[in-house]
Each structure stands twice: as structure tokens, then as C-alpha cells.
């Protein structure tokens, strides 16, 4: 049987468009009660028994035979050796990517992550002090989805922010260590690493054990157990986000070679069967050409089955009335990756309000952004770009308000505070302000 | 019986200090299983039955007798009338506070909330576009802790960010509307308001109903049910934070009138019995003087019983070896409010790494900051200042990465992406980058 990938064809002029579109987008992150229970038990156990519990779960789930938790620490020498064992092309590529990612995040820090203050007319100083987190944990998935690029994307912004210690955890099922992941940790400047994963690794980072230091925030993607554990420890530590399946939306005006668009849709679909690839285009004939390229290119793809399952199950090629309408629909989706595959991308960009990352013009394939353009590839999924942002330096910093009221300022602010505090029935608040007023 | 407030006396030179200090700080936000179940049911019910469910829960919990949900909408005319009904002093105070809060948040937006981009040497454009959220919900507690100042502190940063619609919900137990809260909503520019509260209000905002529009993010404090509901809808919408009891830490060098410090400790303690007030000071005689002022001032306070319960149960007066050590201990606490009550506050400020807001110098009482200095009074509690920030304009904005790779840039980035993608076994990613390379 020939493998076929036929994303759902939709047209905005159809009466059933809204319903079909909504059904296609549907994805539920609802918590699974069984997973919740397992995770709650693991967290409680690690909180009580520390190292011992982490060791037991790791040996059991990852089929290891470690005697103590310290055995599972990755030494700096091991990270360095992994880097040095790579072919030169991979070493160079990792370093080139790291350089660009670092330089982008340095610009980000400069643009939005510096302390600021000013004095108002009565001499009162107001501002914010921006400081790095002391210690963060980054979760790196092991097994089939072990991505060294994710190590760079999590660790480098933390490093640029000035985080004191970056602790990496990465599960190694059956003891298999991914040398590229270890090498990326070396390049990115990870402080310490442990070959532990799952809810037990999240618990160790959140609560601390004799061997694993407690961190202030945990970032990085993981499976359903890791996601459930992160959600539960949120509050004890910070977390980045709960990631859903990856998505791409391509807005095409018909000027890009259709094989480029087909391959860009594939590059999302190859992640996993739940990944979502959508094309929006006002030119029906162009959509046919993209479908023809999908048919032509699919057989040669090593991950053809995953691509086909993703495109058949969740993909869509949507014919719109215009590029303007395509932009409107894109805003409803709030996609993780948004390619504006157009000869005039800057005409459409101002219309695009919600997206994790916007790739402008035909040469900007998502894959260039994923690896090495510089911006972060950890992006809000499942429509959460409506209210959240790419992982960035700001995720590894926090702000403290600064207020220094002068004696003159206290005379101006005091009466306002007194009136409002009394309105709220908080007499000590009022009295504290009143005490700072000059006795006349 | 005379009411007595005696915060625990500790000294860092005591052998048992660490244990006593840790015990005093302990506060657990652990989820209550019974509350979790009730909240899960309410959320599911509102998701299914919409308006009808919200109406039923509101009538039941707030003892109302509304026939339809639209009846519970607050009209703009009602908000305006509430404002106009206030005494002139309250109107002026609300407007003065709003003006200062707005001006501070405008500075914040300018300092860290603007879009930016640059071109690198190969012509590739990199940057971030900062955009406001479309629609946010702000939760305002009703009943005994109805604070108009919180309306300003939540709505104004949203407004400054450029949020399109600000939806306020505020429960009105037994139908009692707090006129100051309504007036604050008028001053702050709330778009629509509903007199609903609890988990049902959070659900209505997260999922939308026929009457209440779905929002992108929900901010604002609430009781345990509201907190549990916010935690559960996180992911469907954004949330700000899960607030614990309020805290103040005063770092004193002994130069501030001790009655000012005593009243500042009271102003936190009067919020509720779980609020925490801590003094750190290297001068034992000064600590005695503060305790004497506590004894002298307490009887006259209208909320003396709450203050005494809070100080006796959770307060502490800690004698430190030095101001430097006091700063170190403050960093371990990561307090919500941190007063540097010293004649040289700028000597100590650089040593303070973790705090929601830092109040510098004796004239900067926390109450001035709470109401009208300008910075936000919604601050991270329970040590979460280690990894989170005051509510701000940035909470009502999100970022989209911008990448525009030139043809020349694609030649530079392509080989790096190809190498890394192949290293990760993602051939479609590699192929998408390769297609953009010039055929030679």
C-alpha cells in the first residue's frame, strides 16, 4: 500500500467551515487522572525520601542499575569528552548555533532586561531592579526525542541572564547517553548534570535532595508525567510552560516554490503524529501544487509514516478569500510557528497579532529558526501565544520594585494613602503614612 | 485580659536559630483535596452549562436572587455613579493614586515593553514584536477584603499595555456592592464588570459563556477556591500567580523612630492572622524599643486582635550580628515587601537579591507603596520572589520572535541547520534548509 498524506482541504467560503476548522484545531491538554495520581505519589515520595526515592524510580523506569544517586552525575570531563568526540562538522555547527543564540539573547537582555529608575518631581525614586535567578533546572528529554538544540535553547538564555548555576537533568533509558546532548551541555555552559528524568527528576529539582540541589525554576519540555509534575511543583519553583504538540502555520501568497512549503509542512509533521501543519492560501491552484509536492516528496522521507499520520490526522490546507482573511484566521489559531511565505512579508506582518515566532519571507524556513537563526525555539503552543511568549532571558530574571520616598514625597503621598487606607478600613496602613507627615 | 503582641525573639547567634527560623517561615500552599474536588466540578459544570451554571452558583454562594446572568452585569453608568457619589477627598485620592500608578507603568513599558529588532551582517533581521493581550479578566475579592486599590493595581497596567478589553468580576455577597471598588473600576477604565465571584467566575472568564466573554488571562487575588480554579485553568488562559499570605520584612539599622517600624509591622499584620511581619536588626536595644512601641500602640488599633494573632503566630524580631548578615537572611526569605529602614539604604540595596518590592529609607513606609507611590502592590509572596516579579505591564503583553532570513543569510545558516537536524534525525528539517541553498 502506498503511503498517502492528504491534509484536510477546507475553504472559508463553505458553510461548514467554522465547525470543520474548530474540530481540526481541537486538542485537549486535560489532565489524565491516572498520570496525576502516579505523579503526586512520586513527588511526595521524593520529598520524603530524597536521593533514595530518586534512585529507585530511575533504576526502575530507565532500567538502570545504579547503586547511589551521585553515580548518576555527569562530570564536566564527560561533557567535554562528548564534545571532543564529535565529528568536526557537528562541533562547528553546535558552536555556530550557540554563538548566534547567545548573541540574540544578549540583544534581548539589552532591549528588555535591564534595571531602570527615575526620580519624580518631589524627589521620590521609582524603578525596578532586574536580577538573575540563583539556580535553575533544565529538563532535557531522553530517548527518541533527545534534542541537543533544546539544550542550547534552554541553557543559553539562562546563562545570558546571569543565572549562577544551571542544573541539567536528562534521562538515559537503558543507560544510553546521547553524545550530542552532552556536547551541547558543554557548549552551553551547563554547571552540573544528572542522568535522571521523569517526575522524579522534577521532584528532585523542586525540593532538592542530598545530591541534587533545589532550584528556583524548571524549564524544558517532557512527556505527560513531566508536564504533570511541573504543573504540581509550580509555586514551590517557577516553571516555563506546559507544552502541547508542535505546530506550524504557513501563510502563502503563492510566490514561494511549492516544494519549499511542502517540506516546511513536513518538518513540523515529522516531530510526531500529533504535530499540526496548516497552510492558509488564497490561491486554490497553488494549494493543488503544494499537495502535488507533498505526494512527490513524501516517499523519500525517512520519517514518512509519522509525517503521513500527522498530516492526515491533524493537517489542513485552507483556501481563503484573501491574504487579509488568512491573517485573521492565523490570529484565531495563535500558532507556535508562523511562516509568512510571501514576496511581501512586511505587508502582512503588522496584521499578525498572536504567534510564538514569525518567519518572514520564503527564505526563512522554520528549520533555520529552530536551530541557529538566534531566537529561541521554545515557543508557546496550542494557542497559548495569545498570552505567552517564547522562552527568553526574561524567564531567567525577576524584578524587584524600587521605591525611595523622600521626606518631601512623604508629605505629598501621605494624605492620599491615608484616605485610601481608611476607605479600606486598614488603620495601621493609614497610621504608618500619617507618622511620616511633618508635625505642624 | 489585655491583648498582647509578642513576635518571637530570635538571635542568629543561637545554636537553634536555623531550626526556629525555618519553622517560623513555614507556610504550606498544599492543595486541599476537598476544595480541589469542588472546584473541578464547578469548572466542568460552567464549561457545559455556561450562564445557567454561573447563575446558580452565584445565587447559592452569594445569597442572591438573580433571574438571569445579564442582570449581574455592572453598567458603565453604575460605575460612574459610584465614583460621583464618593466624598471629594476619596475621589481625589483615587485619581491621584491612579495617576501615579499609570505614570510608573508607562515608564515600565518604555523601559522593557517595546518591540525591538536588528539586522546582522548577512542581512538577517532578528527581533521581537511586543503586543498587548486582546482581553483580560481581573478578579477582585468581595466581602471583608474588598480593596479598591487592587482594582487600580490590576487594571491600570493592563490598560497601559494596550489590552483591548478589561473584564472585572467581583462577588457581592448578599448583594452588597462596595462603592469604592466600583468607583476604582471607573477610574481605572474597566471595560465591563460582573458581580460574580469564586470558581464559577474564574470558569466563566476562562471558557466564556453566553454573557461573559472568554479572556486570555486572569489576574487578581482570591480565596482558596479562586486560587485552585486559577491553577486549573492555567494553560487554557494565562494566570498571574497564586498568592499566599502577605509578608513584610523590615531591615533596621536602628536609626528610624521605633514607632514607625512598629506601625509598619502592624500594617502587614492587620491584613489577616496568617500575614507575616519580621524585623531584622543588629541592635538588641533597638529591638526592645520596637517591642515597647508595639505594646504602647496596639491597644488603640481597630484591628488589634488580628494584629496580635498575626504577630504572635507568625511574627519575629530577629537580632543579627550585622546588617550584612541581615541582608543575607533577607535573601533567604525573599520577602514580598522589604523595608530598608536605614539612614544609608543605598549601602544595603545592592546586597538584596530577592524581594517583591524594596522600600528604601525611613520615609518609605510600605503603605505609601501599597496605595500610591506608583509601583504595583501585587507582589510575589511566600518566597516566590526568588523566581517571580511584581505584576506589571509585561504581564499583559506577549512577545513574538521575528526572523527574516535573507537569501545570503540562508546560505550561511543552511549548512549549520542541516548538520544539527541530521544529528537529531530530523530529515525534513534538514531538507527544508537545504532547499534554500543556491544550486551551484
From TrEMBL, chains A, B:
Zn(2+) binds at residues 268, 271, 370, 429. Substrate binds at residues 246, 268, 271, 337, 370, 424, 429. Belongs to the histidinol dehydrogenase family. GO terms for biological process: L-histidine biosynthetic process. GO terms for cellular component: cytosol. Binds 1 zinc ion per subunit. It catalyses: L-histidinol + 2 NAD(+) + H2O = L-histidine + 2 NADH + 3 H(+). This is Histidinol dehydrogenase. NCBIfam families: hisD.
Amino acid at each position: 500500500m502506498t503511503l498517502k498524506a492528504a491534509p484536510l482541504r477546507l475553504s472559508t467560503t463553505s458553510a461548514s467551515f467554522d465547525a470543520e476548522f474548530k474540530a481540526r484545531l481541537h486538542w485537549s491538554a486535560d489532565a489524565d487522572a491516572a498520570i496525576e495520581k502516579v505523579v503526586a505519589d512520586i513527588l511526595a515520595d521524593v520529598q520524603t525520601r530524597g536521593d533514595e526515592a530518586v534512585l529507585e524510580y530511575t533504576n526502575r523506569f530507565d532500567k538502570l542499575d545504579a547503586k547511589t544517586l551521585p553515580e548518576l552525575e555527569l562530570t564536566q570531563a564527560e561533557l567535554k569528552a562528548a564534545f571532543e568526540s564529535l565529528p568536526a562538522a557537528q562541533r562547528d555547527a553546535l558552536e555556530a548555533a550557540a554563538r548566534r543564540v547567545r548573541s540574540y539573547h544578549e540583544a534581548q537582555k539589552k532591549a528588555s532586561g535591564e534595571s531602570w529608575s527615575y526620580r519624580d518631581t518631589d524627589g521620590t525614586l521609582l524603578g525596578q531592579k532586574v536580577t538573575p535567578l540563583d539556580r535553575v533546572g533544565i529538563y532535557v528529554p531522553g530517548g527518541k526525542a533527545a534534542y541537543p538544540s533544546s539544550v542550547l535553547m534552554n541553557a543559553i538564555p539562562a546563562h545570558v541572564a546571569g543565572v549562577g548555576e544551571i542544573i541539567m537533568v536528562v534521562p538515559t533509558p537503558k543507560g544510553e547517553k546521547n553524545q550530542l546532548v552532552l556536547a551541547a551541555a558543554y557548549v552551553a555552559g551547563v554547571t552540573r548534570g544528572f542522568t535522571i528524568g521523569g517526575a522524579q527528576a522534577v521532584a528532585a529539582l523542586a525540593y532538592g535532595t542530598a545530591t541534587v540541589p533545589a532550584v528556583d525554576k524548571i524549564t524544558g519540555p517532557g512527556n505527560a508525567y513531566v508536564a504533570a509534575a511541573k504543573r504540581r511543583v509550580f509555586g514551590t519553583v517557577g516553571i516555563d510552560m506546559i507544552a502541547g504538540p508542535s505546530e506550524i502555520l504557513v501563510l502563502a501568497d503563492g510566490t514561494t516554490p511549492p516544494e519549499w512549503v511542502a517540506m516546511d509542512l513536513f518538518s513540523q509533521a515529522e516531530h510526531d503524529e500529533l504535530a499540526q501543519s496548516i497552510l492558509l492560501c488564497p490561491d486554490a491552484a497553488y494549494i493543488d501544487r503544494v499537495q502535488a509536492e507533498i505526494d512527490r516528496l513524501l516517499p523519500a522521507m525517512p520519517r514518512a509514516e509519522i509525517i503521513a499520520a500527522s498530516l492526515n490526522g491533524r493537517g489542513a490546507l485552507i483556501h481563503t478569500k484573501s491574504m487579509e482573511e488568512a491573517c485573521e484566521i492565523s490570529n484565531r489559531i495563535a500558532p507556535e510557528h508562523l511562516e509568512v511565505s510571501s514576496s511581501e512579508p512586511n505587508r502582512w506582518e503588522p496584521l499578525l497579532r498572536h504567534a510564538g515566532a514569525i518567519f518572514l519571507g520564503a527564505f526563512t524556513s522554520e528549520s533555520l529558526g529552530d536551530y541557529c537563526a538566534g531566537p529561541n525555539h521554545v515557543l508557546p503552543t496550542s494557542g497559548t501565544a495569545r498570552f505567552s511568549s517564547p522562552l527568553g532571558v526574561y524567564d531567567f530574571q525577576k524584578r524587584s520594585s524600587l521605591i525611595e520616598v523622600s521626606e518631601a514625597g512623604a508629605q505629598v503621598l501621605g494624605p492620599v494613602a491615608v484616605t485610601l487606607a481608611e476607605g479600606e478600613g486598614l488603620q495601621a496602613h493609614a497610621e504608618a503614612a500619617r507618622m511620616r507627615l511633618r508635625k505642624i
